[in-house]
Amino acid sequence: MDTSLRCVMDAQERLDAVNDTFAKRAADLEREGRQQRAPLLRERGVAAKRIPGFWMCALQGHPLLEQYISARDASILEHLTALEVSALSDTDAGFTITLSFSANRFFTNPILEKTLRYAGDAALSMEATPIAWTAASSGGGEEEAPHGEAATFLTAFAWTNGDTKCLLSGTGQAESAGLAEAEAFCEAIKEDVYAHPLRFFERFSCSEGAGDPTAA
């Protein structure tokens, strides 16, 4: 074997060993980070429940998500009491968004969940809790966006693979386009609103002319 090629192979083997070591350290560090964040997230969640409409305002303060929130959604989100994001198992890449609601006239679900799961080939699948609309809810059972109309927050949240409901991009989109938009919608909740809720809560409160929402 050519000496230069052997040198390349030897260097690559050592590089792979270093990469494997640091990948394990990164996984251990992420696991430790989740453990340390968990009690703080619980503490934050308890405090947020004492602020009426906290998560509704945080969602409405996000520049992407606010485009999905209709007047009807805003009325529904007044009953949103908690928003949580949890990672799937170490061997299952993805995350679950959990929305908790107080009793309301719109649907009977106390909890709505949306799970994004990434397969080994990076293929994305989505699962969502079917919404049990009440008969008393205006338009109950008809929350799916009609052909040609944009989705609302709840139809976007409930969007799954193979769904024919329209999102903001409108009609005639391929499933891949809808999947990409639904993924961006969920990532905005996970990476922005859940990670930094005060930033978006304050943005919405200020836009509504409420002044400093943290002042008491």
From TrEMBL:
GO biological process, any: nucleosome assembly
Cellular component GO terms, alphabetical: nucleus
Pfam families, alphabetized: NAP
InterPro entries, per the entry: NAP-like_sf, NAP_family
Gene3D superfamilies to which the protein is assigned, alphabetical: Nucleosome assembly protein
Origin superkingdom: Eukaryota
Range of residues in the leader sequence: none
Transmembrane domains' residue ranges: none
Family (UniProt): Belongs to the nucleosome assembly protein (NAP) family.
Protein's recorded name: Nucleosome assembly protein
Organism this protein belongs to: Emiliania huxleyi (strain CCMP1516)
